Amino acid sequence: MDKKILEFLNFLATEKGFSNNTLVAYQNDLRQFYEYSLQQAQGGQEAAVVVTEGQIVWNSVAKFQILAFVLHTKEKEYAPATVARKIAAIRSFFHFLVSEGLVKDDPTATLDSPKVGKNLPKPISVDEVALLLAQPVRGPTASPESLRDAAMMGLLYATGMRVSELVALDIDDMNLAAGYVRCIGKGSKERIIPVAPSQVETTRSYLEEGRPKLVRSSDEAALFLNHRGYRLTRQGFWLILKEYARKAGITKNITPHTLRHSFATHMLNNGADLRTVQELLGHANIATTQVYTQLTKDHIRAAYNKAHPRAR
């Protein structure tokens, strides 16, 4: 990996507080651009970037060379959203190089991104959520994993957290007595989210009866553990969720983000104001939260068609 790219990624992590997921995506995007540009130069392609001692001279990169890479990604049939993200990564990188005085003229200054249609979130119904959350076995016969799964799925729906935030929780982040959870979101921003009493009790059952049987080290701080006693991963939780959805007979494609979407939609449908939902979700921009109003409008239309005597 090019030294300047590594410096840029370190800048995003330490100065901008980018999430690990975004850093990994940007790293892959910039590596792909770097390797493509090197191959073009080493293959003797006309008007390729300048390479000295095996390294790209970033000050030599022109807009048309970046466009060539964009065309290359489109030929590989990447989705428009993926292409847009790769362009965003390259644009941010060159902004960094300009700010560091390493590049004089920004070749991405007039670079356009492809139009990306906004896909509406796909929540599941309140009844489907209830059916899903009822799947883990509770009570005296429940396994430690079942108690954990009930606590995890319930907490995800009760708070609207991102799954990355959920698996990053430590024991100290849960305040059962006060009924809230503290989570660290994008940009290392902290938010306090209330937790309903029923979910507090589900989490308490896991902490008292499930987690002690999973933990292997007294130094382990993670709230949710896998069967080996280590912090459960996003991928691990996704597999768990898919299995419970299958058991519940829910045929829709359910991901951890589905519960976040469902949380936001159900809150708005039941009268929560947009600003409150924005704060609970940890959205920096309310425009991101407003996408859920499209779903609530559909809810209003359905209720109108059902209730108004002249709607049919």
Q: Looking at this structure, what is the CATH superfamily of the largest domain?
A: Intergrase catalytic core
Share in helix? 55-70%
- Briefly note the CATH topology name of the largest domain: hpI Integrase, Chain A
Mean pLDDT: 87
Could you describe the 3D structure shown?
The chain is mainly alpha-helical. The protein contains 12 helices and 5 strands. It has helices at residues 3-14, 20-42, 63-75, 80-99, 126-133, 144-159, 163-167, 197-214, 234-247, 256-269, 274-281, 286-307, and strands spanning 51-52, 55-56, 174-175, 180-184, 190-194. The radius of gyration is 24 Å and the shape is globular. The model has no long low-confidence stretch (mean pLDDT 87).
Give a short summary of the structure:
This protein has 312 residues and is mostly helical. It has helices spanning 3-14, 20-42, 63-75, 80-99, 126-133, 144-159, 163-167, 197-214, 234-247, 256-269, 274-281, 286-307, and strands at residues 51-52, 55-56, 174-175, 180-184, 190-194. It folds into two domains: 3-99, DNA polymerase, domain 1; 126-306, Orthogonal Bundle (hpI Integrase, Chain A).
Which secondary structure elements does this structure contain, and how are they paired or packed?
Blueprint: H1 3-14, H2 20-42, E1 51-52, E2 55-56, H3 63-75, H4 80-99, H5 126-133, H6 144-159, H7 163-167, E3 174-175, E4 180-184, E5 190-194, H8 197-214, H9 234-247, H10 256-269, H11 274-281, H12 286-307
Antiparallel strand pairs: 1-2, 3-4, 4-5
Helix pairs in contact: 1-2, 2-4, 3-4, 6-8, 6-10, 10-12, 11-12
